[in-house]
Amino acid sequence: MNDGVREIEVKYRVAEPDAIVVALRQLGVELSAPVRQDDQAYAPAGWAYGQSKTGVSFARLRTQDGRHLFCVKRPLDNELACQEYETEVAEREPMHAAILAMGFQPTVRIVKTRRTGRLGGMSFCLDEIRHLGTFLEIELLVDDNRSAVEVQARLDDFAQSLGVELARSTETYDSLIRAALTAPV
């Protein structure tokens, strides 16, 4: 992604994944076959959960279908409105070492099965996440000065129009997993 493009998304916990698939299909969205993604999340040394993520760069190393993708995201307006840079790398372990050398520290591992689809400019990700359950992400790439909060409100209106029970989350998967794994039993 170039400097002028932002990824803005909304995220929902899904009680009935099959109902989402049907609702999206009725709109002409066919979700892809499931793929497994194994993500290691990283935060800058010195940053800790509970601190703001806005304006802070975070890294991710993803393995999917034998490919390794390195990504840096910097939340701008809120955690789900980011400037993002992503590139494929040849090997996971040397990239992990390079990320550590850049001053990042590993936070949590996010393992999920993802199905994707598109409608107009919107991207959909239906994710079954280990330790969390099923989530729907709706993303829009914008290259102008639109307010992220306004774009998220429009995306939320669309999500609510699907007529399926959804519980909105304003946190990223790494924060949700960390909270789930550290919650008292």
UniProtKB/TrEMBL annotation:
Domain CYTH: 5-179
InterPro entries attached to this UniProt entry: Adenylyl_cyclase_CyaB, CYTH-like_dom_sf, CYTH_domain
GO molecular function: adenylate cyclase activity
Keywords: Lyase
EC number: 4.6.1.1
Pfam families listed in its UniProt record: CYTH (PF01928)
Top-tier EC class: lyase
Annotated SUPFAM superfamilies: CYTH-like phosphatases
Name the UniProt record assigns to this protein: Adenylate cyclase class 2
Species assigned in the record: Micromonospora polyrhachis
Phylogenetic classification of the source organism: Bacteria, Bacillati, Actinomycetota, Actinomycetes, Micromonosporales
